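Fig. S4 source data, part A: sequence.
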Amino acid sequence: MLSRKGFNGFFSLFVLIFFITSCAGTTKGLPLLNLLPEEKEVELGRAYVPYAIEESDGLYPDRDVQEYIKDIGLTLSRKSERRLPYQFYLVNSSQVNAFALPGGPVMITRGLLLKLNSESELASVLAHELGHINARHHAKFLEKQFGLNLLLNIGALLFADRPYGKALLQFGQVGAGLLALKFSREQEKEADQYGVLYTYKAGYDPMGMIRVFEMFKSLERGGRPPEWMSTHPLPDTRIQEVSKEIEVLKPTGAFITDTLEFQRIKSKLVQTQASFEEFEKGKKAFGQRSYRVALEHFNRALEAYPDNYPARAYVAYILAMEGRLLEAERQSETALRTMPDVFLTNYVHGYVKFLQKEHTASIKHLQRASQLIPDHASTHYYLGRNYEATGQRSKAVEHYRTALELSQGRAPWAEDAKERLRRLGALW
């Protein structure tokens, strides 16, 4: 599998034993002790953006749409208490969800945006996630669950000259914890309070949040509870409490409920929905190793929307596995041009170049892939193959060892990596 969930099955195998008491943050204007420095919180959030993107089927490949989401988000963030380098992304996932990372990144899924009916609803979703960031809910979780020493050294683990598997496993464990983080009811209440305030200050109708909650409830009653509710509990009391918060503010005057721009942006997503539905079918077939069926779905996805870069990357990967390297190269280059700074396009192009024996080019793109997601085992294996082919034996050994540690020796190429280490005079 090329999806983040399919990269490695090791997350559940490693549980770190660093536990400390969390006493950090700022609640209702009262400063408390910050255990994790803000600059490290920001560094952590940025480090896990590529993970979150791959977990969510990539970035929506339309700059106009991304800029719109960013503009709404930054308008809201200027009303928040913390001055952070906020980032806002629309990701391709069809799940109905939104989430944030420590120190600034906020992501909303294509699936959720398609369910929203107005700009004020979108603003309320982004403002709620900003509330989690401003209340330091993610940072408090990390401080408590993983310990300060590990968190302070994450940057060193990423940028060390030698990529050790154990350190990368720890890095991956932190990321898995962040992406599966479930908030308490008290934390949700706090994020709601901040979110209502930010939307109000930014000039949006704060009732947008109530309408979003009612939409989530209707999906739940229809038997399809949105993914957002699995990490953001939504008892009826939350709707009541938000209503009281709005009553306290007593909003009057002209508030923004909806805009033509929101409807224009949403219509773009509606027009590309068929393409991403085909992509999901293709990904399912790929996971079942039905590669010809997968290829058919991916090609249909591209016919419907040529900029669907994840579908194009999968096409390139399948063609490469079949030995159709010139076709694979054309597809991987196009995917890379469409979205040059994500893991998937760099990894696939690096893989194609490796098969073409263009080792320098392969190293370039696999190194970029490894910078984005450093604990992907196959990236290290193919880097090892490239370095071995170019006579860089010590680097090859390092990457083979890292690949085996990350995969726990269970990847399809594991025996080959062990044999290559033996030939290079190194022990696994």
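Fig. S4 source data, part B ends here. Residues 109 and 325 are 33 Å apart (CA to CA).
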